[in-house]
């Protein structure tokens, strides 16, 4: 369900007792009344990083008003999304004697959100947290849906938990300071929603490429809102990824191989996903599901946002090994998200292995 007011829009995640709103709009970090409504705890730990803190921490703390606020400022980067950094957050929670009534506020992108969320999921067997995403990727994807995790040196997001936030507060104005490459990486996840679930949204994205590239307020608001609506619909049906939710991973199994092979942080997550979506589209062509023209359309859309469409030259064999580490391996068979058509993805495990190997050979060669 979506409701609109003058300043922000709300998309609801409907999960019974774990339901929560996603609030989307410019300037929400300065809206004390809205923050007071959605962040109830008197004791807070704000988790952020060294890049975001100088930009937004003071504004958020001022708006949160008169309560106890502790902070932890992490080093910046995917390479710090580790058990060690997670342990540091827990150390601070313990040192500051924050108890079960305290809540964590995750101020940042997906790296901060995933780690702060995992700390909230595990500290004293689970405390509340609120996502305040500041990257486009986090606003359209990682802050929504309750997946939290840290990386293992050999596989991404291998240690984590499902733990839904109490609210997501997405201040779209924070995107104005986002580096271009990070913004484009977020666009990859926006485009993903069109590929997997909404051909009409894909057409809208194509018609609004220039506005999105220019970070036009209205275009960005629409893209964030529609992406969150689609994610809300999918998570509302399948919170713990027993089935449908896996389609949100279009391009991710290929992408995780890229991220792991090149070292976390070399390729941005969204860049790896973009390239992975091209590979998924290509394999879908080889299986006769979509036409070469449809695959070319996926490539063109991503290229128009300056996203990479070719994998690093690690070789098909190595890529296949790394894909085997993915969480989507079930009973020894790698499940993949492929395109039945543009706007409809499916999770499949009964594809031709030869077609997969040919795809990997061509894209990672
Ligand atoms: P990120 O968190 O590393 O942020 C990208 C960069 O932008 C960082 O350097 C960050 O400090 C900086 N930054 C953040 N906000 C800024 C702002 N407003 N202005 C200037 N700089 C800013 O990367 P990301 O793309 O947000 O997230 C990627 C992570 O999200 C990956 O670890 C991925 O696995 C995870 N992820 C999780 C889910 C999920 O469902 N939990 C979904 C998708 C991705
Ligand atoms: N980003 C994939 C998911 O939330 O399920």
Q: Which stretches of 5+ consecutive residues score pLDDT under 50? A: 1-6
Q: Please indicate the percent range of residues in DSSP E strands (runs of 2 or more).
A: 15-25%
Largest sheet: 8 strands, mixed
Q: Helix coverage percent of residues?
A: 40-55%
Main-sheet strand order equals 1-2-3-10-7-6-4-5
Shape descriptor reads globular
Radius of gyration: 20 Å
Number of domains: 2
Number of helices: 14
Provide the list of bound ligands, each named once. nicotinamide-adenine-dinucleotide, glycine
Name given to the CATH architecture of the largest domain: 3-Layer(aba) Sandwich
Mean pLDDT: 94
Category by helix and strand content: alpha/beta
User: Distance N terminus to C terminus?
Assistant: 45 Å
Describe the secondary structure blueprint for this structure.
Layout: E1 2-4, E2 9-13, E3 20-25, H1 32-38, E4 43-49, H2 53-64, E5 68-74, H3 83-95, E6 103-108, H4 110-122, E7 128-133, H5 136-142, E8 147-152, E9 155-162, E10 167-171, H6 180-197, H7 199-207, H8 209-213, H9 217-237, H10 252-262, H11 269-286, H12 292-304, H13 316-324, E11 329-330, E12 333-334, E13 336-341, E14 344-348, H14 353-364
Parallel strand pairs: 3-10, 4-5, 4-6, 6-7, 7-10
Antiparallel strand pairs: 1-2, 2-3, 8-9, 11-12, 13-14
Helix pairs in contact: 3-4, 5-6, 5-9, 6-7, 6-9, 6-11, 10-11, 10-13, 11-12, 11-14, 13-14
What does this structure look like?
By secondary structure, the chain is an alpha/beta fold. The protein is built from 14 helices and 14 strands. The strands form 4 sheets. An 8-stranded mixed beta sheet has the order 1-2-3-10-7-6-4-5, sandwiched between helices. Strands 8-9 form a two-stranded antiparallel sheet. The chain has a two-stranded antiparallel sheet with strand order 11-12. Nicotinamide-adenine-dinucleotide binds next to helix 4, helix 5, helix 6 and helix 11.
């Amino acid at each position: 369900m979506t409701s609109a007011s003058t300043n922000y829009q709300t998309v609801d995640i409907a999960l019974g007792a774990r339901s929560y709103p996603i609030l989307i709009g410019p300037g929400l970090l300065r809206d004390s009344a809205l923050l007071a409504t959605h962040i109830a705890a008197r004791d807070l730990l704000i988790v952020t990083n060294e890049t975001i803190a100088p930009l937004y921490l003071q504004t958020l703390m001022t708006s949160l008003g008169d309560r106890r606020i502790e902070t932890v400022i992490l080093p910046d980067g995917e390479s710090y999304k580790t058990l060690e950094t997670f342990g540091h957050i827990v150390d601070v929670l313990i040192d500051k004697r924050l108890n079960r009534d305290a809540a964590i506020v995750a101020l940042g992108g997906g790296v901060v959100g995933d780690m702060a969320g995992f700390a909230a999921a595990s500290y004293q067997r689970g405390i509340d947290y609120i996502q305040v995403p500041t990257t486009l990727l986090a606003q359209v994807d990682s802050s929504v849906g309750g997946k939290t995790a840290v990386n293992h040196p050999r596989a991404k997001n291998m240690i984590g938990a499902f733990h839904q936030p109490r609210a997501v507060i997405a201040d779209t104005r924070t995107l104005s300071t986002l580096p271009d490459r990070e913004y484009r990486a977020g666009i990859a996840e926006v485009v993903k929603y069109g590929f997997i679930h909404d051909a009409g949204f894909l057409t809208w994205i194509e018609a609004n490429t220039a506005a999105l590239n220019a970070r036009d307020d209205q275009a960005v608001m629409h893209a964030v809102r529609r992406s969150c609506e689609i994610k809300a619909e999918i998570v509302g049906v399948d919170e713990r990824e027993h089935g449908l939710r896996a389609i949100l991973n279009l391009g991710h199994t290929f992408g995780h191989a890229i991220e792991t092979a090149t070292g976390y942080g070399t390729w941005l997550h969204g860049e790896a996903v973009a390239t992975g979506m091209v590979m998924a589209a290509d394999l879908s062509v080889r299986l006769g599901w979509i036409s070469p023209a449809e695959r070319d359309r996926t490539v063109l859309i991503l290229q128009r946002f300056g996203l990479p469409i070719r994998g690093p030259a690690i070789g098909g064999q190595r890529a296949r090994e790394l894909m085997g580490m993915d969480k989507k391996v079930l009973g020894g068979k790698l499940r993949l998200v492929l395109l039945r058509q543009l706007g409809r993805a499916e999770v499949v495990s009964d594809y031709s292995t030869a077609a997969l190997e040919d795809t990997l050979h061509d894209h990672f060669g």
